[in-house]
UniProtKB/TrEMBL annotation, chain A:
Metal-binding keyword on record: no
Name recorded for this polypeptide: ABC transporter permease
Subcellular localization, as worded in the UniProt entry: Cell membrane; Membrane
Topological type in the membrane: Multi-pass membrane protein
Keywords, sorted A to Z: Membrane, Transmembrane, Transmembrane helix, Transport
UniProt family annotation: Belongs to the binding-protein-dependent transport system permease family.
Transmembrane domains' residue ranges: 32-51, 72-101, 153-173, 185-209
One Pfam family, short name: BPD_transp_1
Domain of life: Bacteria
Statement: the UniProt record of this protein carries the keyword Transmembrane: yes
Organismal lineage: Bacteria, Bacillati, Actinomycetota, Actinomycetes, Streptosporangiales
Automatic annotation (TrEMBL), chain B:
Cellular compartments annotated: Cell membrane; Membrane
Transmembrane region(s): 30-50, 57-76, 82-104, 125-145, 151-172, 184-205
Keyword Membrane belongs to the record: yes
UniProt domain ABC transmembrane type-1: residue ranges: 22-202
Alphabetically ordered keywords of this record: Membrane, Transmembrane, Transmembrane helix, Transport
Matching InterPro entries: ABC_transp_perm/SBD, MetI-like, MetI-like_sf
Protein name (database record): ABC transporter permease subunit
Keyword Transcription regulation belongs to the record: no
Primary location recorded for the protein, binned into one broad class: membrane
Matching CDD domains: TM_PBP2
Length: 227, 226
């Protein structure tokens, strides 16, 4: 059988679409792991990035640490945390959070730093105080960068959650590693295609979020800059 | 786990497996960076010239960049087997998402009067591109190369999961599969060291290639991380 036939056969086998090891269940697991890690990472990194960006304090340190973290290999971080904490879902989640924090932090910080000082002056002139400036001006203006950071992190998390299957948890990576062990290439390729599909869905999700959440005035300005 | 770092293991394994893993890692990361640059230059030049090409090209490379490397490695495996191409081809594709926008930005930053001066000196479009526009764009290109090389050097480790070598193999096969932390720590630290070393060499290359840029000024890096 050719590779295409193997993959097509795997996808069309109804047995692969039901039960706890079926495609919908694995897809849901993968989404749940990724969403949980992203929620924790965002809860840590967005406020921190807003704070360092707004006050200008500790920004260099935060960005330096985050950039250094980018040079670390994801599988090393994942395996080290799992080895230290034992096999299970919690260590995997910890590793995913560790990998997701840096891009969110850096982009949030840079986004707030890049806010036009004229806008800040105008906000002060309108009588806004520190927290108001942050929430009503800096956050909305920095939102495209914050979303870019979240998207970068989400793509990374979805990818690393695949590797997490190697240490025995669920998710779409199961198809890849189980297929590899059983020498079933249709399953390996099918799992790989599903992971790729999920990554594209993440891009679509953030594209929609950007359309919905970013102020139309800002989008018009960006379009004008691009012309 | 006993002692976290077993120095005796490191001392015994300096040449093999550690040294071999470093060399394999360098090969698996430098080849895709070089191939990526070779492909990104014509694409970037084309996108800077014909602006309508750029948005669709950008979408394609960004979508490719989002596809996890492990998926691409396993999809390529039946075609390329356990050769370096299984890792090199996807990693080269990934660099495009960073290099192409930097090349386009770099070429767009060439001041109009510089371009006009080149034309006035009798340069045709090709000579102007090679002798004037690309050299002026070097800082932007190198800024892209720096981001791409750090990302590639850290991503190569994933290739160990399909059975290829490099520091990932040290982490996975010597370390995790034996529940032995030392090789994992060595692998993580050496990956970061390689990334910083290549980054430093690129900064040096930029100074040599653009002697006209005042010393304290550095290549304009793109904001944020990918």
């Amino acid at each position: 059988m050719s590779i295409y036939e193997l993959v097509a056969a795997w996808f069309s086998d109804p047995g692969n679409w039901t039960g706890p090891g079926g495609i919908p269940a694995r897809f849901a697991e993968h989404t749940a792991y990724s969403a949980a890690a992203m929620a924790v990472a965002a809860a840590i990194a967005v406020p921190l990035g807003l704070a360092t960006g707004h006050t200008g304090r500790g920004g260099l340190l935060a960005v330096g640490l985050a950039n250094a973290a980018r040079a670390l290999p994801t599988i090393g971080v994942m395996f080290l945390v799992v080895l230290a904490m034992g096999i299970g879902l919690v260590p995997v989640q910890v590793a995913l959070v560790v990998l997701a924090v840096p891009p969110i932090l850096v982009n949030t910080h840079e986004g707030v730093r890049a806010v036009d000082p004229g806008l800040r002056d105008a906000a002060a002139g309108m009588g806004m105080r520190g927290p108001q400036v942050l929430l009503r001006l800096e956050l909305p203006v920095a939102l495209p960068m914050v979303l870019l950071g979240l998207r970068t992190a989400a793509v990374q998390v979805v990818s690393t959650a695949t590797i997490a299957a190697y240490v025995g948890v669920g998710g779409l990576g199961r198809f890849i590693f189980d297929g590899q062990n059983r020498q079933e290439f249709g399953m390996v390729a099918g799992g790989s295609l599903l992971v790729a599909l999920m990554a594209v869905l993440v891009l679509v999700f953030f594209w929609l979020l950007r359309r919905l959440a970013v102020s139309p005035g800002l989008r018009a300005r960006e379009a004008a800059v691009r012309e | 786990m006993g002692e976290v770092i077993r120095w005796d293991w490191i001392a015994r394994g300096l040449e093999d497996p550690i040294g071999t893993a470093v060399l394999q890692h360098l090969q698996l990361s430098l080849v895709p960076i070089a191939l990526g640059l070779l492909a990104a230059l014509p694409l970037g030049v084309a996108a800077a010239r014909w602006r309508r090409v750029y948005p669709p090209l950008l979408t394609v490379v960004n979508v490719l960049y989002a596809v996890p490397s492990i998926a691409l490695f396993f999809l390529l495996l039946p075609y390329t087997g356990l050769t370096m191409w299984t890792a090199v081809l996807p990693l080269a594709l990934y660099t495009l998402a960073i290099l192409v926008p930097n090349i386009v930005d770099g070429l767009h930053q060439v001041p109009g009067h510089v371009r006009q001066a080149a034309t006035a000196m009798g340069f045709g479009p090709l000579r102007r591109l090679v002798l004037v526009e690309l050299p002026v764009a070097v800082p932007a290109v190198i800024a892209g190369l720096r981001v791409a090389s750090v990302a590639t050097i850290s991503m190569v480790s994933v290739a160990s999961m399909v059975g290829l070598g490099g520091l990932g193999a040290l982490i996975l096969r010597e370390g995790f599969n034996n529940r032995f932390a030392t090789p994992i720590i060595v692998g993580v630290v050496l990956t970061a060291v390689l990334a910083f070393a290549v980054d430093g060499l690129l900064v040096l290359a930029q100074r040599l290639l653009t002697p006209w840029v005042p010393r304290p000024a550095r290549g304009r890096e793109r904001k944020g991380v990918r």
